[in-house]
Design goal:
The complex is a heterodimer of chains A (81) and B (148).
Chain A: E1 2-6, H1 9-15, E2 19-23, H2 30-40, E3 52-55, E4 58-60, E5 72-75
Parallel strand pairs in A: 1-5
Antiparallel strand pairs in A: 1-2, 3-4, 3-5
Chain B: E1 9-12, H1 18-24, E2 32-39, E3 43-44, E4 47-56, H2 58-76, E5 80-86, E6 88-91, E7 95-103, H3 106-123, E8 126-132, E9 135-138
Parallel strand pairs in B: 1-5
Antiparallel strand pairs in B: 2-7, 3-4, 4-6, 4-8, 5-7, 8-9
Helix pairs in contact in B: 2-3
The chains are: A alpha+beta (81), B alpha+beta (148).
């Protein structure tokens, strides 16, 4: 399945885009998604340990399965307030 | 049981009217109202800051802020809570976030307000970029952290 991942803040600047496309196997987890992103976009690799993932506006665990149509976002360390 | 919850949760792109946020949580059943204003400072890790910019993943930020209000209600029994966060360029000394909480008594109002800002700072998908005279950088809360 083809998934779009939204990028924000420093991660968006590192990626050079506010969204990236990744091809994933059915049944892939968000851990697989991160792996794929880091392979396909090596500039993102250093961020891997520091990002959280949100699907449909909720934080998700890396073991959760990616579903087609999920709105996915990579959340770098937050600094609001 | 109590007043219908009337607080506002908003992400805005212009100056926050703290007085309006305060008014939004007033209630005849509330004997205490706590107001927190997060304002932009002119110093960061020894460097002079000339401006700040905030970015938010808006739909999720609103969802997270709403869940903070719900949790504050569960933990502190507040009457109303409002949270307004600003995005875009914020001049030094202006409010980036305003939180107001009303409760029957002051302990709960203070507690809820503190809980809300502390939780927002670690979980809301909002990011701050600092502009110095000679460059800019996204704040990295892991590197040196920020004082409470």
């Amino acid at each position: 399945m083809n998934v779009t991942v939204r990028m924000f803040a420093a991660l968006r600047e590192a990626a050079g885009a506010d969204r990236l496309e990744v091809e994933l196997a059915q049944g892939a987890t968000f851990a697989h998604l991160l792996e794929r992103l880091a392979e396909q976009y090596p500039r993102l690799a250093p961020w891997k340990p520091h990002v959280r993932i949100a699907a449909n506006c909720e934080y998700v665990g890396l073991d959760a399965p990616v579903r087609p149509g999920d709105e996915i976002a990579l959340i770098p360390p937050v600094s609001g307030g | 049981m109590g007043a219908e919850s009337r607080g506002v949760v908003r992400i805005v792109q212009e100056k926050i009217d703290a007085g309006a946020v305060l008014k939004s949580v007033e209630d005849p059943s509330a004997g205490g109202i706590a107001l927190f204003v997060g304002a932009t400072r002119n110093q960061s890790h020894g460097r002079s800051v000339v401006a700040l910019e905030y970015e938010a993943y808006e739909p999720m930020a609103v969802a997270v802020l709403r869940s903070i209000v719900d949790e504050a209600r569960r933990r502190f029994g507040i009457v109303h809570m409002s949270i307004v966060h600003r995005t875009g360029r914020v001049a030094i000394g202006e409010a980036s976030v305003v939180i107001a909480a009303s409760a029957a008594h002051r302990n709960e109002a203070f507690g809820a307000c503190r809980f809300a800002i502390d939780t927002l700072k670690t979980s809301a998908p909002i990011w701050k970029k600092e502009f110095f005279a000679d460059g800019s950088a996204w704040v990295d809360p892991g590197a040196g952290g920020s004082a409470a």
